[in-house]
Amino acid sequence: MGGYLNLSQTATLRIDINTPPRYLKLMELFNSKLCAICKGRKLLCGRPTCPILERFRVAKTIEERINRRDIFGSSPPSIFVGEYGYPKVRIGPLVPPIEGNTSHLDSPLKWENKRIKDILYYRSLLVMGEMKADVNVRKSERILSEVQELAMSVRPVDSEILLKKRPILKVLPSEFAPPVGPKAELLDFELTENPKIPKRTDYIVNDELKAETAIMRLYNWSFDEYYIIRLLSAGLLGINRKLVPTRWSITAVQDTIGKRLRKEILHYEPINEFELYFHEFLGNRYAVILMPETYAFELLEVWLKGSLFGSDEPKVIHDYEDFRGIKGYAEETTGAYYAARLSVLESLRQRRRQARIIVFREVTPKYYAPVGVWQIRVGVKKAMGNPVGRFNTLQEALNELKKLLELKLEKYLEKSWILQLRKQRTLDYYLKLR
Fold this sequence. Notes:
434 residues; 2 domains; 6-stranded mixed sheet; 13 helices; disordered C terminus; Nre_C; DNA repair; Nre
């Protein structure tokens, strides 16, 4: 059966996995003048590849494997909980049409050597059978119970999903669209083998622990961060248990661990010198400055001209906290804030030191498709393992930083709360000496 188009006011192009190539020409109707002239061939936007056509190429490579209503394969394991319609949400297992060790398809913290196109391919292989569910797990049905068992497994689980229709892969004619796998309404879901559930997971799930306590115990037992996120999403942690949208779970887990690590490092001595770290990952530049002072954290982020959310005059956005933690939610940098903070705090905890921290994130045109907040977590973590140098003064560190970033350093200095605070304190000090 051929593809179909659903043209809405948001200009969303939905394609069946069998959409003929001739429909690609219709992409011209829904994009900017620049895209219409380029057609993905001239790369006039400056990106290394066309983010729109890249999605269609991925869809083409997997169409034969998922062109049916029943999908059997080894779930990585993986589940997804949506946020739209809360407290009635869409939840379901993610099952690829592949058997065997499929853990690499949903292991974000192990994707440090992967390309963006690899991530798009992984996500497109995971077919989601979705159903509506109340976030209150006490109202759950048999299928939700099976999904929870899947979530607790630490090994791929042979699974089978029966869908109402053949899965549809949504391809949005926008460079802003995150990679989304094919999905369809779920009729039935069954685990065809016993999931591998650790005894410690059983203990946590069956005990009445607060979610924060459960998260920290699992973290300190070295469970994979995204495994903990999966358990929280599936409504398996906490006293009053509820399904938690995946996106919320990621931030909740990273924030919870980050808060606990912050309280711990406040008891350690500050570092002795100014330190600079740097790494470039998936088209994102990450630079970290550590200062030999009491703890504070700030994330400075800019989307450069030609990048996904960039403009002709790039603006620096930021969020920050002192030793008491951030007030409310990181409104400007959102989930990136908690991911970046956690990676630096882990490094300081390992050293048993504290520091004043500034993370600089520059998003370049090479980051042509958003792949999730995990890349910030990994990018900053890799930066912390790549020291540029140690310096006696902040000015020396900033002089070296200039060589690593594209945007003028002055733009960052104008926005930075930590640097402005430090400058003001210095002025006050000299005024008192007069």
